[in-house]
# Entry
Amino acid sequence: GSGASSWLSSLNLTGSLPNITIPGIPDGIGFHTPKLSISSKNNQPTISIPTTFGFKVGSANLSLPGEFDFTKHTAGSEISFKGSGGDWHAPLDIPWLSLTGLGVAFDLKSPTGGSRELALSLSGNVGLGKKTALPASVAFDIAGGKLSSGEVRIASQIDLSDIPVLKGVPYASKFGLKDLVISTAGIGAGAILDGKVFNTALINAPGPNGTSGWTMILERDGKTLGDLIPFDKTGILKKMPLTHALFSMWRLVRSM
# Structure
């Protein structure tokens, strides 16, 4: 009757739970300070488990609030968590990047009679150059039962000079980059030069004389060396036949 409806509409109960332990997930991942929440939605009772997802990777120790969910069915069981909030400066110990507006999704499927499947994804926005909110995601590597490292992926197009540590690169205005994959080892991307896209790797490592800096390696097909280096103004390179090359520019700029 109306009394029951009134009672349901005001239903709001919360109680603390023990920390959630999930055997077999990577070290450094945990669910902390969970609560049991019972409330009403459209005069129907709903149950949720708000908690905090914490994880350690590299030098970072992050915590994101969200909601934990557990489902059991005839095919197996599934544990999931979705949360958001906060920023991550120097993600994966990449000092010149920052992720803002973090979101995390954790999903662990345990099919009956099969192997468990773990999916962990982190998303956010990155500011590079004049672009302040480029969508980005983080893919993690799991080794020895731990989150060991990973890479930041940016499926957008930027200028080479938008990367803070590469502002001083010669001919930076000639290059664009797209579909970036960034780690502490360097950057993999599709480089855009003279309207064409080819593979490139930017590696932060000491050069032949031990001086630290960035090396840019380009891979491209062409009929002449001038096709590979289109900003040659002399025209001499157009006279030199060459169909495929790896082109390396060492120590573009010293590490910052």
Q: What stands out?
A: DSSP finds two helices and 16 strands in the chain. The longest helix spans residues 2-9.
